[in-house]
């Protein structure tokens, strides 16, 4: 405790001098008491918030939510939040996140337990992609040039897992209505994203690439079907990717398909992985239920991966 000298010399025994000295003495004693309290008061340290521990199995969903989940907007997205909580994905890749900026998507994601959000807004596009996650994700690149709706390239923190989400151009035309260059544009988009990710970082082996590709895979069809254009998906497969569903359930191209679920029309949504990732996959399939039947025109794709 800090000591304070309180010696007071009183020259007169008059009432004024005595009471003045007494007031000074009391004030000095009060200072001593306050200083003692300040010194002895304990310091409370607030611990740093800890990051959640990664799970043994990472659950991934990719979902085109139809123009910002417009069918649930009037309900404040309550059905969507309820559905996400039920599915409990660790990583959610979204397409058509219309109307959401970074802050608004963070608020929505917190409602279903995801505190980590990456958006990719483009001034020239109203159909952005996004990633939300229960676990920390690190943004590595936002791809916006020479692509329609862009792409996000991220990494799951404390792992080697690279995550890429994209959404390719949906129309038959490209720059001009009727030019029928949509397939050419989608092939360009595939190469832009591949050149910015897996082809650029060839030493990195763990990749998941997902989204709405607006393209079909030859492995979903019998070889006799020759009317489809497979350029974009062929380019992706040539870079080292395989569709997780085909890897786990076979495919129709070579007659090895073992899955009995049916796609409503042509399948254009995929979750691709590299060999090192797919060999740790435990489940892959589209999700069909009462919610997905109503709230989007795309079924979400799901993939479970052992970490």
UniProtKB/TrEMBL annotation:
Specify the domain of life of the species encoding this protein. Bacteria
Gene3D superfamilies from the UniProt entry:
Endonuclease/exonuclease/phosphatase
GO MF:
endonuclease activity
Pfam families assigned to the protein according to its UniProt record, in alphabetical order: Exo_endo_phos
Among InterPro entries, the record links this protein to: Endo/exonu/phosph_ase_sf, Endo/exonuclease/phosphatase, GPI-anchor_lipid_remodeler
List all membrane-crossing ranges.
12-32
Name the source organism.
Answer: Sphingobacterium faecale
Protein name (Swiss-Prot/TrEMBL): Endonuclease/exonuclease/phosphatase family protein
| Entry keywords, A to Z | Endonuclease, Hydrolase, Membrane, Nuclease, Transmembrane, Transmembrane helix
Domain Endonuclease/exonuclease/phosphatase, by residue range, is: 61-298
Entry keyword Membrane: yes
Give yes or no: UniProt keyword Nuclease. Answer: yes
């Amino acid at each position: 405790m800090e000591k304070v000298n309180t010696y007071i010399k009183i020259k007169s025994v008059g009432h004024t001098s005595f009471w003045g000295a007494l007031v000074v003495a009391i004030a000095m004693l009060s200072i001593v008491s306050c200083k003692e309290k300040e010194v002895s008061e304990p310091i409370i340290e607030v611990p740093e918030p800890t990051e959640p521990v990664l799970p043994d199995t990472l659950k991934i969903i990719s979902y085109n939510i139809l123009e910002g989940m417009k069918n649930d907007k009037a309900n404040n997205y309550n059905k969507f939040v309820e559905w996400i909580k039920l599915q409990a994905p660790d990583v959610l890749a979204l397409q058509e996140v219309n109307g959401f900026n970074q802050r608004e998507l963070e608020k929505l994601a917190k409602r279903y337990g995801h505190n980590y959000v990456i958006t990719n807004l483009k001034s020239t596009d109203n159909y952005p992609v996004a990633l939300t996650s229960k676990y920390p994700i690190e943004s590595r690149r936002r791809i916006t040039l020479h692509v329609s709706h862009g792409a996000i390239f991220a990494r799951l923190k404390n792992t080697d897992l690279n995550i890429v989400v994209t959404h390719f151009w949906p129309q038959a035309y490209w720059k001009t209505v009727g030019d029928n260059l949509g397939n050419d544009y989608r092939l360009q988009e595939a190469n832009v994203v591949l050149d910015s990710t897996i082809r650029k970082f060839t030493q990195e082996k763990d990749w998941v690439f997902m989204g709405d590709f607006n393209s079909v895979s030859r492995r979903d069809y019998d070889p006799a079907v020759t009317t489809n254009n497979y350029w974009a998906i062929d380019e992706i497969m040539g870079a080292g990717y395989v569709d997780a569903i085909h890897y786990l359930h076979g495919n129709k191209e070579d007659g090895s398909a073992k899955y009995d679920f049916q796609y409503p029309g042509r399948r254009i949504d995929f979750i691709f992985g590299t060999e090192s990732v797919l060999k740790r996959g435990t489940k892959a399939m589209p999700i069909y239920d009462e919610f997905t039947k109503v709230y989007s025109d795309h079924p979400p794709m799901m993939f479970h991966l052992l970490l």
